[in-house]
Amino acid sequence: MEAVIAKPCLRFCNMSKDLKSQKMKMEAEERLKYCKYLLQALLPVLNQIHEEQTMENELEANIQGAWLKLLSVRDCNRAVVRLPSYTKAWYRRGMANASMGNYKDAIQDLDISMNMELSSGGNSKIKEELEIIKKQSRREELESELEELEEAELEEQLLQPATMVIMLCGGRSFEGFPSVFLRQLELLEGQEGLYP
């Protein structure tokens, strides 16, 4: 079946009028079916557009939030350079660093602001924030160490069969072993071309 290519309508013909008159002649039931069909066809596309717009808005908000944090640290750096005795600048820079995950810098800044703060109320507030940040820092350190241990254990488990085979061979040369066996060893070690 050959595809028929329609010529573009230049509105010289009466086709648009014919189509309009046909729509007018459509019964209410047919119109309803037609509208339902259009809605079913368009709904997935509209949902996808909505999801993409929502994701774009979330990404833009995250970018703006990160930018504000960076600007906050920059502004606090300027304030600290201009007036090193300004406790609030040290405190705010510490909080901005903490919000970005720079806990080491945040702890240093909050320590400085706590030592400079004269009021007991301000000092206790800084102390509370400092404890929270220290706990968060320690939690992230432990999570990182745990991930490293899990990766090391997994790597050890993957290499264990190859190590056992090498130990069983007594460190002898692998010459004479079937190539399939050597290929399995290479895969277990994770480095191709390791054995002859």
From TrEMBL:
SUPFAM superfamilies hit by this protein: TPR-like
Keyword Zinc-finger: no
TPR repeat ranges per the UniProt record: 87-120
Keyword Coiled coil: yes
Residue ranges the record marks as coiled coil: 123-159
Source organism superkingdom: Eukaryota
Keyword annotations of the record: Coiled coil, TPR repeat
Name of the featured protein: Uncharacterized protein
Record organism: Papaver somniferum
